[in-house]
Give the backbone structure.
Amino acid sequence: MGTRSRIGIQLKNNSIVSVYCHRDGYPEFNGRILRDHYDTVEKVRDLIDGGNISALHTNAGWNNETLPEVGPLYYTSRGESIEDNAPRYDDDIFDFLKKENNEEYAYIFSVNNKWVCTKMNQWEDDKQPEKVEIPAGPVA
């Protein structure tokens, strides 16, 4: 079972384009990977353009083979269509945060070019979800 997350980029009109990520969504892993490896708008757009992701940072393929490079493992790499795994568009951050996809964490690359992490499994209608710090340092 994975720690599910949603990874998105905030556009200038405050809308969000995002993808689902199934594994290792906690800030100590995906948060650090995003911060350390996806630190420009171009890198984040390239990541999201690939569609939904099984694992953000791995060199293991779908059949447990070793891949030549470490990186995201997209569902499309096992033959699923991009249409079924396409990035999702939300009008604003509130729509993005209120979607009920059962992700534990949401990551947004903000218009300020900083990653913001939100803990989603504590969502309540009368208050905003809790923001979570991405720990300092590399992934252990």
The mean pLDDT is 91. The longest helix spans residues 27-37. Residues 5-132 form one domain. DSSP finds three helices and eight strands in the chain.
